[in-house]
Amino acid sequence: MKREIRYLSLCGLLGYGYAPASLTNALQEDLDFIGVDAGSTDPGPYYLGSGNNFVKPLQVKRDLSLALKPALERKIPLIIGSAGGSGAAPHLEQTLDILRQIAAEQSLSFRVAIIRSDLDREILHRAVAENRLQPCGGAPPFDPALIPQLCHPVAQFGTEPIIAALQMQPDVVLSGRCCDTAVFAAYPILHGFPAGLALHAAKIAECGALCARPVGANDSLLVRLRHDSFTIEPPNPSRRCTPDSVAAHSLYEQPDPNCFFEPEGEIDLRQCQFQQSSARAVTVSGSVLHPAVRPTTKLEGAVLRGYRSISIAGLHDPAAIANLAEIEQGVREAVQESASFVREGEYTLRFLRYGLDAVCGRCTAPAAPLPAEVGLVLEAVAPSQEQADALVSLARSKALHQGFTGRKATAGNLAFPFSPSDFQGGPVYEFALYHLLDLPLICKPELLEIK
Amino acid sequence: MRLYDIAMVCRSKNAGPFQLTIDLMFEREEDYLRVLQAENFQPRTIAALYQVPPECVRIKPFARILTLKVVLPRNASSGSLQDTDVYGSQQHFPLGDLDFPPPPAPA
Q1: How far is B107 from chain A (nearest CA, A)?
Q2: Residue B86 is nearest to which of A43, A352, A360, comparing CB atoms?
C-alpha cells in the first residue's frame, strides 16, 4: 500500500491561470496526479442555463496546454472536474474541443475517461412522486411544473464516478458536474487513504493557493497526503501557508467552519490540528468523516426567465439626483402607456441607482448628503430580446427628458458614456433546481481516444 | 464604533445561490467577545437589517481564529431578476454599519 500520495492542484479554477514555475517546481516531486476544478455556481445561473463557459476557451487552453504534456510524459492522470464551469453536455464538449486542439498542436495522443452528469428528467419525475427531493442550502421547495423547462439539469457527483474512471486507467479524466472535492479525493480514496483526510485536503486543494499568503486562486498548491495527516505547500516560493491561513480558508464560502458536507458524508473538523511543518508548509491532522447514512446527490438546474437589455447613464445634476424617485415613477408610467408590444406583468423594468442604493438594495437608509454623481443602469427583462430592446429604449428616452420638481437642466437628465447607449444582455436564467436527491444515480464513464 | 471598523476582515460571499455568509475576523480576543456577546449582534437584529426571517439567521463563532460567521438567506437568489449582487461579495453592509460602544478605557 502507498504510504504517501502527492498531487498538484493546478489553480483555483481552470482558466484562472498559474505561474508556470509553480508547475515546474511541483513536477520535481514524484506526483501521483494533477487535478483542477473548473466548476462554480458563483457567476450565477446564466452559465448553466445557456450552456456557455464562464471562463473563456483561450484561458482554459492556456492552463491545460502547459500541464497536459508533462502529465502524459510521467504517466500520471490529469483530472478535470466540472468541465466548462457548469459541467453539462455543452460545457463538457467545449473542454473536449480544447483538449483536441492541444493534442493537434502538440502532437499528443491520449485516452480520456468522460463522466457525464446530465440528468434524466425521468429521475426528477420519480423523485417528485416519491418525495426524494429536499431543498439544499436555503433553496425554496422544488416546483415540479418546471421539470420540462429546466435547461441542462445536472447531478453533482461525488468521488464514485471519478474512482470508476480512474480504474479505466485513462490519461485524462474529464468530469461533468462534480463536487470540487471529488477531483482531489477520488484518487486517494481509491488507494485506501482515509476519506476524512482525503476530503479535507481536497477541500483546501480545490481553491489552488487561496489558502496561502499572499492568497492566490490563480496559483497552484501541492498536497502530500499520508494515512494520518496531510501537508500542503504552495510550489510558488513567493507564497507560504500558515496554520491561520489554512484554518481561515475553512471559512471561505462555507456555512460552517467546523464541518462540511459532501455526498460521502459529514467531514468533522473540530479535532483538526494545523501545524507549521516547514517554512511554507502546513500539516493538518484530525479531520474525520462521518459517513452519510443515506447518500444524496445535489442536483442543479436553471430556467429561462426572459431576455435582458440595459442602458448605462450617469447623473450629476443635484436636482435630478434628489428627485430620482419622481423621475423613475414618471418613466414607469410613460413606458406602460407606450409599450403596447408587451403585456403589463410580462416585463420588468429596474432602475439600478449606483451611488445611492443599487448594491445593498432600497432597504438601507439613503446616504446623506446625496452623492455628487449617481450611475444609473436601466434594465428591462421581457419575453423576447426584441421586446426588451424596445422597452429599454423607451425607458431611456423617457428618462432623458422626464420632467420633475425643480428641474433646471431642461435639455436632458442623463450623461451617456457610450453610443450606442443600450446593450443586449441576452437570456436571463434563474436557479430552479438546487436540491438533494436521495435516489441512486448510475453514472458509467466512457473512454475516448484523442489522437 | 462601527462593526466594520472593529473587525480586521469584514466580508460577504455566496454560500451557494440561495445563502450569504458574512465573515468577521478580529485581531483581538476582546473585540471578538465584545461583538459576540453584544445585545445588537443577535439573529433577530441581523434578520431585521437584511429583512429576512430571524429563524433563518445563524451566528457561528470560530474562536480558534477569532472569527464570527453569519449565515443568512438571500432575498433574491444569485443572478435572479431581483438580484443586485451575483457573487454576494458586497453584502457585508448593512451589517458593517452596526454600532458598538467603544471599549471601556483601561483602568
Answers
A1: 32
A2: A43
The 10 Å Cβ neighbour count of residue A52 is: 16
Question: Does A361 sit within 8 Å of B15, measured CB to CB?
Answer: no
Give the distance between the most distant pair of CA atoms in chain A.
Answer: 82
Record the cell numbers describing residue A311, joined without a space.
Answer: 442602458
Which of B14, B58, B73 is closest, CB to CB, to A253?
B14
- A284 grid coordinates: 493538518
From the list A45, A254, A364, which residue is nearest B79 (CB)? A45
In the numeric block, the cell 457573487 is attached to B87
Residues forming a β-bridge with A233: A222
- Rounded CA separation A79/A65 (Å): 14
Residue A407's alpha-carbon distances to A377, A392, A395, in angstroms, are 21, 23, 19
Q: Is the pLDDT of residue A226 over 90?
A: yes
Angle at B5 between CA B1 and CA B11, to 5 degrees: 130
Contact A254 B81 (CB under 8 A): no
CB atoms inside a 10 Å sphere around CB A373: 14
Query: In this structure, are residues B33 and B39 in contact, taking their beta carbons and an 8 Å threshold?
Result: no
Q: What is the per-residue pLDDT across B61-88, written as a single tens digit (0 to 9) for each?
A: 988 889 999 999 999 999 999 999 999 9
What CA–CA distances, in Å, run from B74 to B42, B62, B83, B93? 18, 23, 9, 13
B103 close contact with A: CB closer than 8 A? no
Q: B63 — contact with chain A (CB < 8 Å)?
A: no
Q: How far is residue A245's CA from residue A284's CA, in Å, rounded to a whole number?
A: 12
Q: Which of A43, A140, A358 sits opposite B84 (nearest CB)?
A: A358
Cβ separation of A359 and B90 shorter than 8 Å?
yes
Among A256, A354, A433, the strongest candidate for a mutation testing the B interface, having the largest count of B CBs within 10 A, is A256
C-beta atoms of A254 and B15 within 8 A? yes
Which of A130, A163, A165 lies closest to A264, judged by CA? A163
Asked whether the predicted pLDDT for residue A193 surpasses 70, the reply is: yes
- CA A204, A207, A213 angle in degrees (round to 5)? 80
A358 touches chain B (CB under 8 A): yes
- The per-residue pLDDT for range A102-146, each reduced to its tens digit, is 999 999 999 999 999 999 999 999 999 999 999 999 999 999 999
Mean pLDDT of all residues belonging to chain A? 95
Model pTM score? 0.94
pLDDT, tens only, A4-24: 999 999 999 999 999 999 999
Which residues on neighbouring strands pair with residue B70, listed in sequence order? B22, B59
With an 8 Å Cβ cutoff, are B15 and A137 in contact?
yes
**Out of A139, A254, A364, closest to residue B21 by CB:** A254
The answer to whether residue A33 neighbours chain B at the CB level (below 8 Å) is no
Q: Are A427 and A302 in contact (CB under 8 A)?
A: no
A451: how many CB neighbours lie within 10 A of its CB? Answer: 9
- Torsion angles phi and psi, residue A16, rounded to 5: -75, -15
Q: Which helix (H) or strand (E) holds B68?
A: strand B67-73
